[in-house]
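User: Let's play a game. I give you a shape written as tokens, and you guess the letters that built it. Ready? Here's round one.
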């Protein structure tokens, strides 16, 4: 069963009119995982996705829908605002693969591992 889809449709109800946005799953992942962060924080999350794409030879959709990799896909999703989607899209376009392939919100990491903190996220390489 192929659970990966090129686009996910989000319905946003505004003044009784329905507006439909076709948003790529990597953009949704960035928005769900880091919409409360600065643009730099969202770029860092986008970079993790792109790094995994290169390392694993997968598409963006395959990376974000890998089981148990991005917490936003482990339960229900909230409706995102147009601004959150636009910022996540800008972060995707401004990002490139980097040295970190994982991140977490807070937590403790061994001082032996190279890491950086951006906003409330800790980025590291496994």
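Assistant: Ready! My guess for every position:
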């Amino acid at each position: 069963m192929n659970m990966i889809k090129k686009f996910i449709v989000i319905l946003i109800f505004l003044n009784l009119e329905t507006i439909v946005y076709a948003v790529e799953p990597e953009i949704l992942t960035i928005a769900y995982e880091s919409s409360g962060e600065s643009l730099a924080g969202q770029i860092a999350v986008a970079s993790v996705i792109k790094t995994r794409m290169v390392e694993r030879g997968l598409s963006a959709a395959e990376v974000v829908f890998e089981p148990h990799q991005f917490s936003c896909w482990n339960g229900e999703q909230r409706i995102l605002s147009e601004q959150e989607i636009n910022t996540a899209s800008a972060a995707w376009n401004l990002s490139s693969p980097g040295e970190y392939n994982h991140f977490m919100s807070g937590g403790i990491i061994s001082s032996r591992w190279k890491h950086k903190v951006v906003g409330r996220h800790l980025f590291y390489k496994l």
